[in-house]
Amino acid sequence: xxxxxxxxxxxxxxxxxxxxxxxxRRGHAVRVVMTEAATRFIGPVTFTGxxxxxxxxxxxxxxxxxxxxxxLAAWAxxxxxxxxxxxxxxxxxxGVADDAxxxxxxxxxxxxxxxxxxxxxxxAQPATRRNAARLAEDGAILVGPVEGALASGEVGLGRMAEPxxxxxxxxxxxxRDLVGRTxxxxxxxxxxxxxxxxxxxxxxxxxxxxxxxxxxxxRGARAILVTGPSALATPPGAERVDVRSARDMEAAIGRVRAxxxxxxxxxxxxxxxxxxxxxxxxxxxxxxxxxxxxxxxDILAGLGAWRAGPRPVLVGFALETRDVLERARAKRAKKRxxxxxxxxxADALGTTTNRAIFVDDDGDETLPELDKRAxxxxxxxxxxxxxxxxxxxxxxx
Length: 397
Ligand code: CTP
What we know:
It is a single chain. 36% of the residues lie in helices and 24% in strands. By secondary structure, the protein is an alpha/beta fold. The protein has two domains: 2-174, 3-Layer(aba) Sandwich (Rossmann fold), CATH 3.40.50.1950; 182-390, CoaB-like (Rossmann fold), CATH 3.40.50. The strands form six sheets. The protein has an eight-stranded mixed sheet with strand order 12-11-8-13-16-17-19-20, with helices on both faces. The relative contact order is 0.09. Residues 246, 265, 267, 269, 271, 296, 298-300, 316-319, 331 line the site of cytidine-5'-triphosphate.
């Protein structure tokens, strides 16, 4: 693969040389683009020696005819900025393109990774956290920083992740292990209409399901995202099917079920819907209003009970406020699901990170706190391993 390494100006820039060498050692073609400040910390010649070509520093360098950022961005399969200083994160987060590195970042639309490195107090600043969160929201992966000795001699959270860890993250980002597989993912909350202007809904944003569809597509799968109303953008490469109610969702999943190698039910499906849909807007009266609700189909349980032909691998979520593990186990057995990803409600709703527990045949495993994209990768790792064990050939079996 072609990996473009961006180096910004911090003491950790010397470690970028190790990263470049490590990526090369793992068989990737590497090119380097540096900020002017980075050249104060490490000589461009070092990178020339390691990659066989001089790093790009100056957009105005006559050798590049002014379009080098376009050419570099088209060449790269992945972009990793290491170290990413506070200033670089700020510029990248707001789309500034005033040097070769930031212009290339803006021109590149593939997988990108930032390895922040700075003094702990700079990392802790709300402005920096905002910039890092914005980049993550826009699709970037952040690796580190980690706790350790800083350039100032103090110890704190601000040290760049080790080059091996960054190279691992780059390779995870480039994995294409799901080529030939079809992964169906449901996402978001369903809306159960009450009258022409009102509905019953829930607080699900859809982020978890969207992250799974995004990573499945990036890893080479055909990703079919069946989504309740959501403001989120369709992940690149995913096929999107918009639905509104639980019954719409059940029908949409039913239409693609036979093609699926795996189905991940990340949607917050309403268990009940209003017994009747009023054709006119329900007007208020003086007394209380009682709504009659009826049960919706349990989509996941329906998939678990499927007997016709080989069953796709089934993944469900369990969002609980108490007795997380017991309830997740019970749900797994009752709905005949292969993997239940259990969350405590307070840890998962409206947040960008998750602390999840995997419950499967082998028992349970508590995962570290991960952002939703990293958790999506763990779920897809689990699915990939299970499909490997089943030895099934590919989509449609
Ligand atoms: N689910 C579903 N159809 C429903 C409700 C839930 O497919 N009508 C799926 C969800 O997408 C999720 C899993 O089932 O993957 C768990 O949902 P949850 O509501 O926690 O499970 P319930 O069995 O409804 O549990 P509870 O008794 O706590 O409501």
